[in-house]
Amino acid sequence: MASGRTRSRKAATTGTRRSTGNSAQAWAHIPTQPVVVLDSAEPILADLAVERLVTQATHDHPGASVHRVDADQLAPGALMTIVGPSLFAEPRIVIVTKGENITDAGIDEGIAYLGAPEPDVVVVFVHSTKSQRGKKLWDAAARAGFARVALPSLAKVSAKEDFIRYLVSESGKRISAAAVHALIDAQGSDIQELYGAVRQLIADIGGDIDVADVDRYYGGRSVVGSFAIADAALSGRIGDAIAHTRSAMATGTKALAIVGACTAKVRQMLQVRAQDQRPDFSLSLPAWQARDARSRLSGLSESGLAKIVEALAAAEDALKDSSADDAYIVEHLLMVMASARRYVR
User: Fold this and answer.
1) First CA to last CA distance, the chain
2) Burial per residue of 295-332, b for 16 or more beta-carbon CB atoms within 10 angstroms, e otherwise
3) According to the model, what pLDDT value does residue 20 have?
4) Number of other CB atoms surrounding residue 250 within 10 Å
5) Which pLDDT does position 63 carry in this prediction?
């Protein structure tokens, strides 16, 4: 075992020491090493980076199991139990998230592990750059020669443009400049919605993507605006939800689009609730969508969730009536969604 650890240590020190560039594509080019630290200023990029690393590591180590743990749950001995030697020496990929909340035990054991990492184990630490917590460990990993990769914010328009173009180019397609700009206009400041929109266009459009495709799918701000309305209602911000709804419908957004966005969000919540209740349930959501859905479920009872589902079904049925008051139907639905947390049983 000692010689295996030595080989792993040498492999680590000969790899890329640190990605110092501020490229929006850094997430796609991370070397698989025994230890990887992701300095994340953009959660969606961290999710994409972890997805790539897991794919590569499972390719390099067939049969590897994937373990995920939040850094704030690392009690004394917990990290070493996860990454330490196993009876059958099976390959493992360990994803440690919420590194900005890492415990003292996690920091100390992480630093100790850097000196003798296990062969066939890949440990990925993900932390937010908004906090200095854990800096001692992240710096130690970089000094030891392990990969430490900066995942920059996509706040700037130019960064969003590069991100979109890279995603599309990876699929073997091209996207026009006008389509890129239309996508950015449509999604506002929500990077997660932007990513979802790009992935949908890539999947649905047979060839290259032009502005007409963006307009056909998203109609300016309509679809993304509908998701923003759904988010406001599910967060209990009924004033914002109603105001945005009236503004959106006045500029052409259809009631069906808003109800559809609400339905999509609630379906994600139902998937996450099912996984929480049944560990064997296979979740088909990207990590960022699952995280968003779980945050919406916080404090929401089964009864409250059932009220939302009932209201959605009623709204969908009501909108089939051509003489119905669409605005009233949507606003009633939003009020039910926003008040659902009152139900405690």
Assistant:
1) 54
2) ebbeebeeebbebbbebbeebbebbeeeeeebeebbbe
3) 38
4) 9
5) 83
